[in-house]
Design a protein that fits this description.
The complex is a heterodimer of chains A (about 280) and B (about 475). Chain A is mostly helical. Chain A is built from eight helices and no strands. In chain B, the strands form three sheets. In chain B, strands 4, 5, 6, 7, 8, 9, 10, 11, 16 and 17 form a ten-stranded antiparallel beta sheet that branches. Chain B has a five-stranded antiparallel beta sheet with strand order 1-19-18-3-2. Classes of the chains: A mainly alpha (about 280), B alpha+beta (about 475). Chains A and B meet through helix 6 and helix 7 of A and helix 2, strand 7, strand 10, strand 17 and helix 8 of B.
């Protein structure tokens, strides 16, 4: 059993979860949602195992590093983090109707990592710049932040759909199982707070790392700058929320803007702009 | 005067407003974005070539090619700082007042107007009821502050997380601390680089910004530079073995690698790059017209006359790996009354068309190089201030979001036939979570006080219904 085989299974399992969550909400079948949760939890366990196995394999190859070193590995870890955070949210709120977007994003990340011809799934040795204890801290904290923002993205879209039918959601409609706008707004806010905390820690660990690798804690490298832009957008959102009349729909829109910044920080900078993080594109 | 005063106070109010904060945050985001789209650090000529002279003038005028150091960008950072200071001055006294405030009396009628409140009666005796109230409230909400305690009426307040109101100021001040640390670093620190050839010792470094030179209070000698590769060809390690020499004495020997710098007397050396300098090159030069062939020995940046001609040739630069084509030597030919002509000669590709300058075909027979290491040299007295700001920021954000000020009011009055209890609660944020917590306390109290469901009055019913809704959705 190799990690790549397990990860292929995980990719298809997330597709199954996506279908289960979508049909559960569409056909208003809580039992399907329960099945989706169980499948999601099982897939997460398999993925955890696969990531651990890949870590072990890297030692067998003589490289010995945490599996967070290139685009393939970070996509796999990103998918893992999204599902983990979503399932924790689900467990804490007993609310299963919001799973579609998170598992869809996880599936898309896994599928892109597995099937894109531009992405090398081989275990590579670490280049000198990445040989640091900060690697794990930096990647894990950044991805916890990104993942929380991904879940918030899903909640925001759901909010905007739900909010337009505020007065009376059709009891037989697709949104019948979805929480009320007020509850969605509250959940969204909590997710953004969580993401903001971890994004801050992620930027800070990156900054401390950069200081020991390149001798400067901030060099306006495109990746750094875009993570700061993301941070500023979410900071603006958190402040805007306390302005009169800015909760709800406007905050949901800002959250979509914030997630667009996350995506650009993650993909756009790698492919469109050059900089110190260029190894992340390989 | 009156007008002026109101202008300034209106201006001050604007500076302290939340809208201004949001504006500054977005302005910083958009400007940073522009800086990532326009290449930074290009010279005027490069800009003119790329965008045309007209656009280049504007880019230069707004400092867009060095945006993050432009005056207006620093102005934005300063405005953010001012906004933070003004907001703190404006709001902190009110918050401190709120944190210190202890109410002295309680109006049970007002409690009934709270969003979270419940009212019920208990068949227990007064003392028993009081005991039960104290027990539950103390367990769920900590220390109890009594406002009223007589044989007919009981009023108490319990609260948690009063200090959490102050945490947002920790976050805001931490941003100021980080900015201050960056300022200290830019005023009293420096960032420079030095290329030390193997075996040599240097005490001067070139500033990264501008053209200044820093003289270090000691010398740094490169004893050996080593680069190793993985089997697949990826670089594995860059290592410089350094010796610090102070007053002619070797005081410290250490190797540095990427991610493993050396700090001596507050100055830190980072492995940043490496390269090779040419010591000398043996070349064969052939005039393609006359066929005359000569062997020459060149040293870097030294003119050598080409025999039987008036022309001279010079090795300008040695490149260890030019665009993946292996080592290359840049040579220039100088002829009196003509423009000098330069060309890049590829050592491993004799067939390359560029291996010819004017009428001379060049073949490099051998080269001898000396390795050098490229070190980033930095002194930053502000870095600890920045670290302190970072720690305060993380702790502050975590405390702001994951703690809240929750307050519980309890009122009981003896009545006939049963004792009436009113309970109300307030929170400064995350009201849904508090609703659940409040409901939980109410349930505990109802059980403990053996409040019959028939005694539950309107308000309680309403709040219960709301909770049921919350649970269902």
């Amino acid at each position: 059993m190799t990690s790549s085989l397990l990860l292929s299974i995980v990719t298809f399992a997330y597709l199954l979860c996506t279908v289960l969550y979508l049909s559960g909400v569409t056909f208003r079948r809580p039992s399907l949602l329960t099945a989706a949760s169980a499948a999601g939890f099982g897939t997460l366990l398999v993925q955890t195992l696969a990531i651990g196995l890949r870590w072990k394999e890297s030692y067998e190859l003589g490289y010995g590093h945490a599996p967070f070193a290139n685009l393939y590995e970070s996509l796999v870890f990103g998918a893992w983090a999204i599902v983990l955070i979503y399932l924790i949210l689900e467990f804490r709120t007993k609310q299963r109707a919001l799973g579609f977007f998170p598992v869809l994003l996880a599936f898309m990340a896994m599928a892109y990592a597995s099937f894109s011809p531009d992405i090398d799934s081989q275990i590579q040795p670490l280049v000198p710049a990445l040989k640091s204890n900060w690697l794990i801290a930096h990647v894990v904290t950044c991805f916890l932040g990104y993942a929380a923002f991904a879940v918030s993205f899903g909640i925001s879209i759901t909010y905007m759909l739900r909010d337009s039918k505020l007065a009376n959601p059709n009891p037989r409609g697709i949104l019948a199982l979805v929480p009320s706008p007020r509850r969605l707004d509250e959940l969204n806010h909590q997710m953004i707070l969580f993401g903001f905390l971890w994004l801050s820690v992620g930027i800070i660990t990156g900054s401390v790392w950069a200081n020991s690798a390149w001798g400067t804690y901030w060099s306006w490298d495109p990746k750094e700058t875009w993570s700061l832009i993301t941070w500023l957008v979410y900071a603006a959102l958190l402040h805007a929320r306390s302005l009169r009349g800015w909760s709800g729909r406007r905050v949901a829109k800002l959250s979509l803007l914030g997630f667009a910044c996350v995506l650009f920080t993650y993909f756009g900078v790698n492919f469109l702009l050059s900089g110190l993080h260029s190894y992340a594109a390989k | 005067m009156e007008n002026k005063g109101s202008f300034w106070s209106a201006f001050y109010e604007q500076l302290a407003s939340l809208k201004f904060t949001i504006f500054i945050l977005f302005a910083l985001a958009v400007s940073s974005l522009i800086g990532t789209l326009l290449p930074q650090g290009m010279t005027e000529q490069e800009l003119a070539m790329r965008y045309g002279p007209g656009a280049a003038t504007w880019i230069d005028f707004f400092g867009l090619s060095d945006l993050y150091h432009a005056g207006w960008f620093r102005m934005l950072l300063l405005l953010l700082g001012i906004n933070l200071v003004v907001c703190t001055l404006e709001r902190l006294p009110k918050t401190v007042k709120l944190v210190r405030f202890r109410e002295q009396q309680m109006d049970p009628q007002k409690l009934l107007k709270f969003a979270n409140h419940a009212q019920f009666s208990t068949p227990l005796l007064w003392e028993q009821a009081e005991q039960a109230l104290e027990k539950i409230v103390a367990r769920e909400f900590g220390a109890i502050h009594h406002l009223e305690k007589s044989s007919t009426a009981y009023g108490a307040i319990a609260e948690k997380g009063r200090w959490s109101l102050l945490m947002v100021y920790v976050v805001h001040l931490s941003v100021l601390v980080v900015l201050l640390g960056a300022l200290i670093g830019s005023l009293w620190g420096f960032k420079a680089f030095m290329n030390i050839p193997e075996g040599e010792a240097l005490d001067s470094a070139h500033m990264i910004r501008g053209h200044g030179v820093v003289t270090l209070p000691f010398e740094v000698r490169l004893d050996h530079f080593d680069v190793s590769f993985y089997e697949k060809g990826m670089p594995k390690e860059y290592r410089s073995d350094l010796t610090i020499i102070e007053n002619g004495q070797e005081v410290l020997k250490r190797s540095i690698r990427v991610n493993d710098p050396l700090t001596y007397r507050g100055i830190t050396f980072y492995q940043a790059s490496y390269g090779a300098n040419l010591k000398h090159a043996e070349i064969e030069i052939q005039n393609v017209k006359s066929g005359a062939k000569h062997n020459l020995s060149l040293q870097l940046e030294e003119m050598v006359t080409i025999p039987e001609t008036q022309s001279r040739i010079m090795a300008m630069q040695y490149q260890e790996n030019f665009s993946g084509f292996g080592p290359a030597l840049i040579l220039a030919v100088f002829t009196e009354g003509e423009k000098p002509v330069a060309s890049r000669v590829l050592l491993n590709h004799p067939e390359f068309h560029g291996n010819q300058i004017q009428d001379y075909h060049v073949r490099v027979l051998s080269t001898e190089q000396s390795r050098y290491t490229g070190l980033q040299v930095k002194q930053d007295p502000g870095v600890w201030v920045v670290w302190f700001g970072f720690i305060a920021m993380v702790l502050g954000i975590a405390a702001t979001y994951y703690t809240s000020h929750r307050k519980l009011w309890v009122w009981a009055s003896i009545g006939n036939p049963s004792t009436k209890v009113i309970i109300a609660g307030k929170v400064n944020k995350n009201s849904l979570a508090f609703e659940r917590e409040f409901e939980h306390v109410c349930e505990r109290l109802r059980t403990e006080l053996r409040a019959g469901s028939e005694n539950v009055e309107d308000a309680t019913l309403k709040s219960r219904k709301k909770t049921i809704e919350v649970k269902k959705i």
